[in-house]
Amino acid sequence: MRSPRESEGIISKYIQTKMPPPNMTSLVLLFIILSALASMGSDSVAEAIAVNWGTKASHPLPPAKVVELLKSNNITKVKLFDADPLVLQALSGSNIAVTVGIPNSMLKTFNSSMKTAQSWVHDNVTRYFSSSGGNGVRIEYVAVGDEPFLVSYGEQFRPFVIGAVINIQTALTKANLAGDVKVVVPCSFDTFQSESSLPSKGHFRPELNKTMIELLAFLSKRHSPFFVTISPFISFRTNKNISLDFALFKETARSHNDSHKKYKNSFDLSYDTLVTALSMVGFPEMDIVVAQIGWPTDGAANATSSTAETFMTGLIDHLHSKSGTPLRPRKPPLETYIFSLLDEDQRSTATGNFERHWGVFTFDGQGKYHLNFGQNAKILVNAQNVEYLPSRWCVVNNNKDLSNATASALEACSSADCSALSPGGSCYNLSWPGNISYAFNSYYQQHDQIPNSCNFGGLGLITTVDPSVNKCRFSVELRISHSTFLHGSYIFQLMILLTANAFVCILIFT
């Protein structure tokens, strides 16, 4: 579809060459046409708001249900972090534009093996691809890696990124898909920085300069955008100069001045820091896609549904306004992917317990707050006909000697999700032994309500009375098949998370 600007140019040329001198009727007609084009431009921005769909959940909502959720909320673009065949099959025929992801763990192999890259493209792109949707998948991008330049990763993935990008691009070319599918690399929010917090001093991390120039040259040559995470929530948590109001787009926030540029929110500040960084290495006009942006709803102070709603409303209103940023006025991001669609109870909590609560929807597809994705429907449509395990919970047996209950809770949380118990979380105010019951139930639900999973040395008790208190929800997990429960890399993820979870639980129960 042509942009409004292109269409206006065509109309203007037509008027000059084909039409007689304008009269009042023709001018009115022209005004109506241009007004309609302006309206089309507004809709195109709405369509550019998309979501990330992560699947690191112990009991994931079935992919077909998630696709129904996307369609019922008029979400037309989705970014994946891998290429799960069940997910791609569910997306087939949906006409939803898809970004397929390659995990960081595969970069080294793709860097060294062209054959492996070709095999991956065949199995995960060619097999499903359809340019028009049809019965296939509208794959738009292949995202090589998931924030491989994150500071905490060190040099674990960086040396393999460019080689993997080139081999995946070559594989797409050999599959005759290079004209339809673009290769991108999602970059973390800490890829670029400004020691003074001023956008005019923005630059890429020095150790990344060579790699970034190579990546940007690759993207520029193919007219591909730069994918980047912007995280006002983490900026607020880590930068004492960023106030909560500034992060939430509030009009009352104190603005930040950079020379003659005035910044009224954290998003614009981060975005223009990146714009300067791109200019510093010779790519001032590079298109930008915000690959991840959101606000968590639990697991930390200021991570609540009401705060997330304020942030998301401010963000979407800002994007719809097309005001752009001080360095790129009237030029908003090419696309913006909200992070995330659903909560994921198996995400790493290394950054914080809030990492498991980025979802606009809960793990079972229920909307957390009002949100307008640009279709004039502020009420989110929930997932329908969701199948749960029976209405049973595991709680502490108050008739037992509870002197060792804390040790049992620590054991439970070493593999279950107790992130809501952390300071600022929705269950933080649970008094002892209520917090013990929460830990027991989390473990019990994660293990499919198997009776033995509510034992804990005789301290556990199965009940049919919902123990939820106020905003602290004692969940009942989704009913899934055993094969689905073990699908993908769940067991591997669980082993990796044991150590981190145990540390978190020691803080919670001591």
The strand count comes to 14
Strand content: 5-15%
**Average residue-wise pLDDT:** 88
Q: CATH topology of the largest domain, anyone?
A: TIM Barrel
Q: N- to C-terminal separation?
A: 59 Å
The major beta sheet can be summarized as:
8 strands, parallel
With strands numbered from the N-terminus, the spatial order across the biggest sheet is 5-4-3-2-1-12-11-8
Helical element count? 16
The CATH superfamily of the largest domain is Glycosidases
Mass-distribution shape = globular
Query: How would you classify the helix and strand content by structural class?
Result: alpha/beta
Indicate the radius of gyration in whole angstroms.
25 Å
Organism: Acer yangbiense
Keywords: Cell membrane, Disulfide bond, Glycoprotein, Glycosidase, GPI-anchor, Hydrolase, Lipoprotein, Membrane, Plant defense, Signal, Transmembrane, Transmembrane helix
Subcellular location: Cell membrane
Enzyme class: hydrolase
